[in-house]
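Researcher: I'd like a candidate sequence for this fold, 245 residues long. If you have to choose between options at a position, lean toward the conservative one.
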């Protein structure tokens, strides 16, 4: 079992390196930022699961460690800070995000639709055009109360950083969403693991702020693991007035 203190220990001083690559929760200390729920989020449970079940133990301040902490702080900002000007992990003057070669999105687009909707494609299980920011986060948070993330390998260093990642949790709650056919989809919790991997090619500036993020992964991998043999899946057609916009 990994040493849990690694998730909470204060990082050692590192001249020239920003706090968001030294401390996975650095941006939660930005108390004057505009937070979605009026205050910074609490990642204690997720960090505990990460410490207990991660597969890699990166040396402090190694490139994989710096990349992992940068991305964790970026996710906090993208999910919880409502003003792009408060995002310290990105170069707000020149920032884009893209998935599987699709046209790049701006930070403002992600703020509008939400991080889940920015990375998921329409399918028989989910449609990002039918659930808003809050509804999408509620659907997946209910299903996966903790969804830990780690860097597996880093293939190249700054300014272009290519790396492979893993995102995992346990499906302890039922999933409820709306699919591309306008059907309400329910998948009963199976209590088993959800474990997905992918690759990112990112460009950073001299402050290690993200300028460009290109994500490559199978967006259906999570849903296949959720649905299993299909016995726990139900679909009910919604009336147009019932659909969440």
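Model: Candidate sequence:
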């Amino acid at each position: 079992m990994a040493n849990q203190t690694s998730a909470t220990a204060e990082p050692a001083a590192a001249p020239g390196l920003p706090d968001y690559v030294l401390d996975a929760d650095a941006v939660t200390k930005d108390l004057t930022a505009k937070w979605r729920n009026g205050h910074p989020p609490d990642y204690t449970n997720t960090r505990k699961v990460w410490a207990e079940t991660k597969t890699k133990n990166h040396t402090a301040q190694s490139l994989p460690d710096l990349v992992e902490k940068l991305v964790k702080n970026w996710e906090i900002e993208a999910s919880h800070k409502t003003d792009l000007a408060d995002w310290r992990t990105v170069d707000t003057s020149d920032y884009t995000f893209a998935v599987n070669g699709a046209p790049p999105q701006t930070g403002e687009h992600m703020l509008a639709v939400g991080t889940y909707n920015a990375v998921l494609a329409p399918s028989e299980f989910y449609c990002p055009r039918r659930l808003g920011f809050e509804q999408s986060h509620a659907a997946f948070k209910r299903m996966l109360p903790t969804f830990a993330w780690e860097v597996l390998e880093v293939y190249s260093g700054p300014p272009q950083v290519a790396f492979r990642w893993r995102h995992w949790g346990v499906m302890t709650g039922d999933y409820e969403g709306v699919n591309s056919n306008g059907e309400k989809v329910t998948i009963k919790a199976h209590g088993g693991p959800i474990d997905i991997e992918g690759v990112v090619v990112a460009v950073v500036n001299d402050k290690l702020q993200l300028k460009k993020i290109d994500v490559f992964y199978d967006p259906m991998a999570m849903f296949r693991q959720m649905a299993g043999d299909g016995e726990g899946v139900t679909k009910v057609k919604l009336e147009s007035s019932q659909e969440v916009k």
